[in-house]
Amino acid sequence: MATRKTPETPAPKRPNVSKEELLQYYRDMLLIRRFEEKAGQLYGMGLIGGFCHLYIGQEAVVVGLEAAAKEGDKRITSYRDHGHMLACGMDPKGVMAELTGREGGLSKGKGGSMHMFSKEKHFYGGHGIVGAQVPLGAGLAFADKYLGNDNVTFAYFGDGAANQGQVYETFNMAALWKLPVIFVIENNQYAMGTAQKRSTSTPDIYTRGAAFGIPGEVVDGMDVLAVKAASEKAVAHCRAGDGPYILEVKTYRYRGHSMSDPAKYRSREEVQKMRDERDAIENVRELLLSGGHATDDDLKSIDREIKAVVNDSAEFAKTSPEPALDELWTDITA
Amino acid sequence: MATEVLMPALSPTMEEGTLAKWLVKEGDTVTSGQIIAEIETDKATMEFEAVDEGTVGKLLVAEGASGVKVNTPIMVLVEEGESADALPAAKAEAAPAPQADTPAPASAPAQAAAPVEIVSKASADWPEGTEMKTMSVREALREAMAEEMRADETVFLMGEEVGEYQGAYKVSQGLLDEFGAKRVLDTPITEHGFTGIGVGAAFGGLRPIVEFMTFNFAMQAMDQIINSAAKTLYMSGGQMGCPIVFRGANGAAARVAAQHSQDYAAWFAQIPGMRVVMPYSAADAKGLLKTAIRDPNPVIFLENEILYGRSFEVPVLDDFTIPFGKARIWREGTDVTLVSFGIGMAHALAAADKLAEEGISAEVIDLRTLRPIDYDTVLASVMKTNRCVTVEEGWPVASIGNHLSAVIMERAFDYLDAPVINCTGKDVPMPYAANLEKLALVTSDEVVAAAKRVCYR
Ligand SMILES: Cc1ncc(C[n+]2csc(CCOP(=O)(O)OP(=O)(O)O)c2C)c(N)n1
Ligand SMILES: [Mg+2]
């Protein structure tokens, strides 16, 4: 199948979306943003340690993709995983308590920010090694196809990860075996301090699927409705048994790569411009207000609700005890 | 209500920092997200954003103040019309985590023995009386690379973020400026690919230094390191060697969990055809890295993120190198031999101090290179002390300590008064939780306990 390219400035083709859905996306994105801001604070206070990669700015990507998922679908991503976990319904308390390394964390404090999982929500991690989740995602899809169900897997990875060799080994096999996997390239334009053009020989990563016969398209990742529409299309393709699909979602991270990144490789103006002009949450906020779907007060009360959820998660994460010492020796082999 | 703004932790290993610059002054209004200060960690200067809104009531730490501990109050934010003195005596919010039961440390012997005298052995690595300067391990590594790059046009550095970003851990800081983009190459995140390109370039007559951001990511490139780099000299009947250095941070940093905390010393040390180096001090880091770059073989050079920031005395010599296969005796002693390398040395030396207080004289040996290993120095020491404890961060099974124990048993069995004990990291993936991580790592107390056991004390 030929690779399709959407025009540079796609006409705002709004999918039909109900007021309830729009409000839900607003909520989901805001939860991620507020959660991440809180995580950043807790890191500064020394309550979170190690590496901590915030998702601020990229919220519309995972929320838009999840909008097309059904029960049974799987997801897997990198270390920048807090947003994915919240978006698929994992408990903010369990996520935050994992960040503080406490007993109440989703991995009992043993995994930390980069390594969290939920069998219940079909969330397969949380992976610290750049690119490793891509073949793993195809493997999850392999299992579904083998078992004969119609589930799909969302395998998320970054623009930097898109250069790893195992990505292309996976593309080949996923296409060869028609695996129901959606490769979601979260192109936030930087891999740590390396701008995409300094690491990547051609600008359009999604076109790389063409060599393997995998259709792909580029999506505006600051527009949750555009992401949702693309997700629906990709999911339909996969569920129909037509094999993998690539979505290159253009997005932007507002914060440093991790908490210890001085971010000298881009200007503050560049970041500010994205925040001011493209912010996904602001966009939905405006849609809600201008479409008469919500009043300022409605949104303020949502803000308050979200803040309370996040504060509760932080409180839980601070007060949950450290894991018992004998946990050191559990879960090593089954 | 007034709130205290605390000195933030800005990296996994940061404990204190310098308040390089205030970007606000008393009386200014601050909005959330506004950059209020520049803070210098050992790695970088970071911008510090306000999370709360308010008016700057008071700056508690002067611009330029260094050694400001994480969580120290640095500024008071007040609300409109409030004075800074309104600050409640409230304590900083970062309460310690509720503790799980911690086992009591091994208690001291009832009767403390008289402390022993500590004999530091002068190193024979440089002439007596050589001028010395204090330098961090990070600077020492950088100097070694810069000196070798100046001396040999074929030496170049490649890796992720080594150039424009100035190194993920700032080891290569400034090298791009001095040597240009031809010789300091930023690679995509493609370890297996760029390692192969490095090995090919070495076959082709260059002397690449390949930096792995950390050795955890060298796992992606394991095949090229072992199957291509280490074996080609042999397979070509000696025609074609591979002069290449693979270097980067190895082992646990702080709280970076299982996939980012692993000591690969024993893995690499097993491979014939390779050199494996794991320095502890800055002088060794410098002298051994220079040797590594000149060596005609593939060299695995294992650094450590925690050690990057530690400072040591380094000789001021034009061309200072340290040969492979020569251990360093850090301290002479008579009762027990402690053998270690890399960050394990920090535990071994700390243990030796504690043992001295209890009247046990420990000899401390730093292997420095793990392939080749300086067996003779270890054996001579064991023949003198008749007791040995090995110390390393890696896992216990098939560890360097296991190997040394076997060699000591074969070659000095009759000299041993006690079985050799291997102190290692615990046999578990590295946990994230602070309390569990502490337990997983080898400690100087464990080394002390082992030393006492072999001394039957
Ligand atoms: C195999 C491997 N190499 C290097 C790293 C260090 N590292 C962690 S994240 C990262 C950048 C990845 O960028 P990208 O894929 O664009 O994802 P983003 O962080 O932007 O979400 C690097 C180099 C790693 N974790 N794993
Ligand atoms: Mg990226």
Mean pLDDT of chain A: 95
Which cofactor or ligand species appear? Answer: thiamine diphosphate, magnesium ion
Structural class per helix/strand content of chain A? alpha/beta
Percentage of β-strand residues of chain A: 5-15%
Mean of all residue-level pLDDT scores of chain B: 91
Alpha-carbon Rg of chain A, integer = 19 Å
The residue fraction in helices of chain B comes out at: 25-40%
Distance between the amino and carboxyl termini of chain A = 43 Å
Cofactor (chain A): thiamine diphosphate
Protein name (chain A): Pyruvate dehydrogenase E1 component subunit alpha
Subunit structure (chain A): Heterodimer of an alpha and a beta chain.
InterPro entries (chain A): DH_E1, PDH_E1_Alpha_Subunit, Pyrv_DH_E1_asu_subgrp-y, THDP-binding
Give a structural overview:
The complex is a heterodimer of chains A (about 325) and B (about 450). Chain A has a single domain (about 20-315), classed as Rossmann fold. In chain A, about 40% of the residues lie in helices and about 10% in strands. In chain A, a hairpin with a 2-residue loop joins strand 4 and strand 5 (about 195). In chain A, the strands form 2 sheets. A 5-stranded parallel beta sheet of chain A has the order 1-2-3-7-6, with helices on both faces. Chain A contains 11 helices and 7 strands. The longest helix of chain A has 26 residues, at about 20-45. Chain A starts with 18 loop residues before the first helix and ends in a 15-residue tail after the last helix. With about 325 residues, chain A is of the alpha/beta class. Chain B has about 450 residues and is α/β, with parallel strands linked by helices. Chain B folds into 3 domains: about 1-80, OB fold (Dihydrolipoamide Acetyltransferase, E2P); about 130-315, 3-Layer(aba) Sandwich (Rossmann fold); about 330-455, Rossmann fold (3-Layer(aba) Sandwich). Chain B is built from 13 helices and 23 strands. Chain B has helices at about 135-150, 175-180, 190-205, 220-230, 230-235, 265-270, 280-295, 305-310, 345-355, 375-385, 400-410, 435-440, 445-455; strands at about 5, 15-20, 30, 35-40, 45-50, 55-60, 70, 75-80, 120, 130-135, 155-160, 185, 205-215, 245-250, 275, 300-305, 310-315, 330, 335-340, 360-365, 370, 390, 420-425. In chain B, the strands form 5 sheets. Chain B has a 7-stranded mixed beta sheet, sandwiched between helices. In chain B, helix 7 (about 280-295) links the parallel strand 15 and strand 16. In chain B, helix 1 packs parallel to helix 7. The longest helix of chain B is centred in the N-terminal third of the chain and has 15 residues, at about 135-150. The termini of chain B are far apart. The chains are: A alpha/beta (about 325), B alpha/beta (about 450). At the A-B interface, helix 1 of A face strand 5 and helix 12 of B. Thiamine diphosphate sits at the interface of chains A and B.
